[in-house]
Design a protein that fits this description.
Radius of gyration: 15 Å
Distance between the termini: 28 Å
Helix content: 10-25%
Strand content: 25-35%
Order of helices and strands: EHHEEHEE
Strand order of the largest sheet: 2-3-1-4-5
Shape: globular
Mean pLDDT: 95
Number of strands: 5
Low-confidence stretches: none
Structural class: alpha+beta
Length: about 120
């Protein structure tokens, strides 16, 4: 059984070329892995530029966010060491399983919980 997360990043839109370059370099440094950071980024469920053109949202709705996966490892290990500020939220399937980092401080994403009511009610 797999564990899935919702993951969102906010970057400055102007940093996207540097971000892509860093992912491609990471992928080249890990040729043995079929899990490529650039592929993960490219296949996000949503990649959107904000209405003012300043920010880039990258969002995955149903993602296996395992640190040992090479594609995820880029975001966990390399990204924090780059000169690319970002805001990050990961919400796991379990109540309270939440990670959050804010070094861009764009105030554009925030975690939330919801109550689901059965269709059979």
């Amino acid at each position: 059984m797999s564990y899935y997360s919702k993951v969102a990043y906010i970057f400055r839109a102007k940093d996207e070329p540097d971000l892509v370059q860093a992912m491609r370099k990471w992928d080249a440094e890990h040729p043995e892995s079929y899990e490529k950071a650039f592929d993960l980024f490219s296949h996000a469920d949503e990649k959107t530029i904000s209405s003012d053109g300043k920010y880039l949202l990258v969002y995955w709705n149903y993602l296996k966010w395992y640190y040992e996966s090479n594609d995820v490892a880029f975001f966990v290990e390399r990204l924090p060491n780059l000169d690319i500020p970002y805001d990050f939220i990961r919400l796991g399937e379990e109540i309270g399983d939440c990670e959050q980092e804010e070094n861009l401080c764009a105030c554009l994403i925030s975690p939330d919980q919801a109550i689901c009511i059965s269709e059979n009610f």
